[in-house]
Amino acid sequence: MSKINVSVIQTDIVWEDPEANLKNISRLVLSEPGTDLFVLPEMFNTGFTNNTRDFAETTDGNTIGKIKELSRISGSAICGSLILRDDEKCYNSFVFVRPDGKITAYNKRHLFKYGGEAEMFSKGEERVIVEYMGWRILLLVCYDLRFPVWSRNNDDYDFAVYVANWPSSRRNIHDILVKARAIENLSYVIACNRVGEDGKGLLYSGGSCIVDYKGETIVAAKDNEPDLIKAELDMSLLKDYKKNFPAHMDRDSFVIL
Known about the structure:
Blueprint: E1 3-10, H1 18-30, E2 37-39, H2 52-55, H3 62-74, E3 77-86, E4 89-97, E5 103-107, H4 117-120, E6 129-132, E7 135-141, E8 159-164, H5 171-185, E9 188-193, E10 195-197, E11 203-205, E12 209-211, E13 217-220, E14 227-234, H6 235-244
Parallel strand pairs: 1-2, 2-3, 7-8, 8-9
Antiparallel strand pairs: 1-14, 3-4, 4-5, 6-7, 9-12, 10-11, 12-13
Helix pairs in contact: 1-3
């Protein structure tokens, strides 16, 4: 059965400085050969800024170009979110970049109105699942974690990835919901959050982790400091568990309108 080696990069993010952040990411990615997939935090190149005028890019822009090159050199897929624009609209967009240069993007569905995100960004409408190395991967961003319907596993994904800038003041909620999403969906869950202080004075304590389909932590990052954690996910273990405990067969059916 298929296995995949995942590395989660929990890092401080230099406020509104894409070049500094890309340099740090490149160093970390190249230090971990043998990784199949690297996961970066939400808005990994700028921090959670609403300054879309200066930092919105396109898929042909500098950040994606450098991530594509880094993916090609390392032979690893790399994913995380940044600000992308499409015509007059800006999105908090989770991009999944493969070593062959192919890009898949998910535009964040649930915008954090409390933090002003909904005033600066457009809402995504499409749920996105990436297929890579025999795995089906659901892409999600930060506030999406609070909404179980959007994360619902309809036997269409094997693990979910949540990338975030989730403040330390609400850290306990983050940790509980990560495990809840894994348990209720019978899937692995990968959570990547940042650490440090952003340009708005918000503090981040991390909480990055890889959790299995029983809600048990496989590996967790250190609190309040940059860290890189990694784990090998095993498809055979996931399928055996679902076969022996087929709770997914009793789920209710519904349609997202």
